Each structure stands twice: as structure tokens, then as C-alpha cells.
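S.,

Sequence below, as promised.
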Amino acid sequence: VAELTRRLQFRSLALVDLAKALGNTAVSVLAAPWLGVWALVAGTLAGPMGYLIVSYMLAPHRPQLTFGSRAARSLVRYGQWVFFTSLVAMTGQSVLRVVITRQLGAAELGLYYLAASLAFIPADLASQVVGEVAFPFYARLQTDRQQAAVAFRSILTSLSILLLPALALMLVLAPTMVDAVLGPRWEGTARIIQVLAVANIFGMLGDTIVPILQGTGRPDRVLVIEGVQSVLLISFVWRLTDRYGVVGAAMAWLPTLAVSQVVGVTFLRQIVRRPFAGLRPPLGAAVLISVIAAAGAAGIDALISSLAGFVVASLFGVALVGGLSWVLERRFALGLFDGFARVFPRAVALVGLGGVRQDD
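The prediction came back faster than expected:
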């Protein structure tokens, strides 16, 4: 996988990460009605297993032990920030679990993390498929900040057209999903999922900023963002769970991500000039598509309140997103799919969208 990353083999990298994300998500969701909270454990095991299998299918390799001091020093200088960022994130999540358990109990902790695993599905998939591929791409553009800014805008636009409709659909369909799919055992998670869906909208910008900070050699800035986010999240969870219960744990993400995004944008402006120039039309289109798709899905869901209604509403919303995106892109050339074209050039070209050549 490291060799694929160095050679910028975007398609293979995306497939490897997609296998991990889908394995984790599919097993966790499908097994939830039978295994309960243990479905999260099963998903955690299934994701890396899928990653392992697909990685060796796409990048056959026989590991050998070697050591180079010069390479090690370079890796340590950069990797120390990545290590500390991971350490802060892991510590923050562990403390968060302790706080929720202490404030509310183990049962509420299980409800919160089930809801979180569902609510973060769109962001996790986007981060796995696009975010990690963007890092080596930005690394190649370290000396060309103008092109890095163009790449940032195209990736942010593409993530918006992917995530905003998905989160909008999740927001309106969460109650039916809980009642019809997960069952009465998970009553009370619908509001948590809805709050976290809104939080994901806030956090979408940060998912786009982190790869450009890492790729342009500023992993220390990512550590600052992660540290600020962890401290604020734990502080807000401690305060809000007293008043709002387990929903308060989800609500804590809203002010936390609002602050961390401001910090991220500040660091972004130090790297590229006018990073958001020209984004109003495509982002406006993404918001419009999301609202229309969510309204259509909500209408069907209100008419058919059952598992069948949930399926039909979801498919109708997805169809609306695809159709409206195709029409607006063909009519106004908003660049909605330029970021996808950098990762999946043939797929985007197949449907006649996007203007990025495969060799770009």
C-alpha cells in the first residue's frame, strides 16, 4: 500500500480503503439487530480484514526486513507529528467513553456509539476513499500552491455533492430507519443520529483541510486541530450530558466542530491564498440538491411509514441527487465532479461528467 501511495495509484488505493470502510460499515449495521453493541466489535474486525485481503490482491508484496538510518530520520521528523496526532485522538476517544459512562451509564454509551457509527458512515467513506488519496496528491504539489488551491476547491466541491445529500437524507429518514431497521431495542437513537448528521455537515470542511495540511508538510497543524477538538468535545460532553442526556453527547460535536473548523481555515489560509474563491455556485448547487432530495424522500417516508417506505424513499432521494447533479453539471459546468475525476477518471468520463483527464 505504501508503494501504491508513492506511485499515486489512486484507483487501487481507493478500492483498498473502500473495502475496509464497507466491511466495517456493512457488518456493523447488518449485525446490529442480532448482536447489539457487539456488532461494532464485529465491524471493527471485518474492516481491517477486508483491507488486508484487497491490499494483497491489488498490490502483491512479500515483506522483507531492512533498515536505513537516513530514511528513518526523515520518517521520524515527519512521523512524530502523525504519531502524536493519533495518540491525542485515541486518548480523546477513550476519555470520551469514560465521561459518557460516568455521566449516563454503559447502556447509554452503547446507544451513543451505535448512533455515531451510523451517522458517521458518509464522512468515513468519503475520508477513506478521497481523503487518503488526496494526501499524496497534495504532496506532489508542495511547490505549486496555486495548483494545490485548485485541487482543494475541486475536492471540497466533490465532497459536498457526495456528503451533503447523504447527510440530508439521513437527517429526514433517521426515525424510520431506527423503527423499521434497527427495531425497538434502539429507541432513542434517532435524535442522536440526526444531531450527528448536522455535526457531520459542520465537519466536512475539516475533512478536506487535513489532507492538504499533511500533504504540504504541516502535520503539526493537524495535531493542533485534533488537540483543540478533543479538549472541547470532552468539555462540552461533560456539561451537556447533565442537561440533555445522551443526546447532549451528540450536541457537543456542534460547538466543537464549529471552533475546530475556524482553526483549520486559519491554517489553510497560511498555505494557499483565497482557498474558497469561486465556490459559491457549486456549493450552492450542492445545498439545493440536498434540500430537494431530502424533501422528496421525506414526502415518500410520510406516505409509507414502513421498511418498504424507507427503502423507496432512500432510493428516490438517491435518484434525485444523481439526476439533479447530472443536469446541473451538464447545463452550468459547475465542476461538481472534478475531485471525483481525479480519483475515478474513467467512471466519471463514462457518465459524461467532469473535466479532469486521467493523466492529471
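Residues 355-360 have pLDDT under 50 and may be disordered.

Coffee later?
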